[in-house]
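> tool_call: predict_assembly(chains=two)
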Amino acid sequence: EVQLVESGGGLVKPGGSLRLSCAASGFTFSTYSMNWVRQAPGKGLEWVSSISSNSNYIYYADSVKGRFTVSRDNAKNSLYLQMNSLRAEDTAVYYCARDLSTRGMTYDFDYWGQGTLVFVSS
Amino acid sequence: DIQMTQSPSSLSASVGDRVTITCRASQSINYYLNWYQQKPGKAPKLLIYAASSLQSGVPSRFSGSGSGTDFTLTISSLQPEDFATYYCQQSYSNPSITFGQGTRLEI
């Protein structure tokens, strides 16, 4: 069974940092591109970042570019999101999501974690 | 960025009804359109990918159609578990993918 479990969320002050993790199991993690998608409270979905299976291709939404860094450790079946210079508008539930296909980066998200809440407030 | 506009924003329906939700892209996205269902406090669930392909395990009462700029999600006979919020998402303009604002389907 495919499972994605996020952790690392919490309360952080503006300007602070946080590192999210996503532990994957039930599939060959190293063959799939992975993604982060966030959802502000009561709002819609916003794509944040994507990373290819071998980390050769990495992309960010303009809203987080230069502040967030995505990475992965295929040996540990884990995905990460390092978030720096956090702002109030980064407050959201952060989901990790798997690409539907192993053929490159499709941006079709077939499995999602349960999400972890990041709350940026003084 | 490609803008995705869903209509209606909310919809009231009854069990057994046929329901259609529309998603319009600000420019042609070919068939690169996905539909997700999200229930309160839960992660989104992929229903339809590539405009009309039913994701494994999703009931056949869900169907998708369209290409270019106009797309629809149809639920042929609403079941109690279908009341949720539905989002469309374009994967054409990758990596700058975008979601619609959501359609809340209520009893």
